[in-house]
Write a structure and sequence with these properties.
six-stranded mixed beta sheet; four-stranded antiparallel beta sheet; 46% strand; globular
């Protein structure tokens, strides 16, 4: 089974930045749209951003202009640069390329 490994989370103050990374253990995601999701306590998992193989991107309205998604197809990785973080960005962040299972995610906590 392909493993999805997210990293880069942490504790940051409002207005701060973090860069998340996700790697897939095999090339199955290479030609697929890769997405970042997040799930806050008590909430459903929501789509944050996505990037196609050719680089086309989509963003949730709540993060557009603050987050930037990118990918390295050769390395099977996807990143999420998060700037101007807000309290409401606190969540566990996951990546996926349409697989029917999830990695462990990486915790992002925005707190003063």
């Amino acid at each position: 089974q392909v493993q999805l490994v997210e990293s880069g989370g942490g504790l940051v103050q409002p207005g701060g930045s973090l860069r998340l990374s996700c790697g897939a253990s095999a090339s199955i995601c290479r030609f697929r749209t890769m997405n970042w999701y997040r799930q806050a306590p008590g909430n459903q998992r929501e789509l944050v951003a996505g990037i196609g193989f050719g680089g086309s991107t989509t963003y949730a309205d709540s993060v557009r202009g603050r987050f930037t998604i990118s990918r390295d197809n050769a390395k099977n990785t996807v990143s999420l640069q998060m700037n101007s973080l807000r309290l409401e960005d606190t969540a566990v962040y996951y990546c996926n390329c349409g697989l029917p299972y999830w990695g462990q995610g990486t915790q992002v906590t925005v707190s003063s």
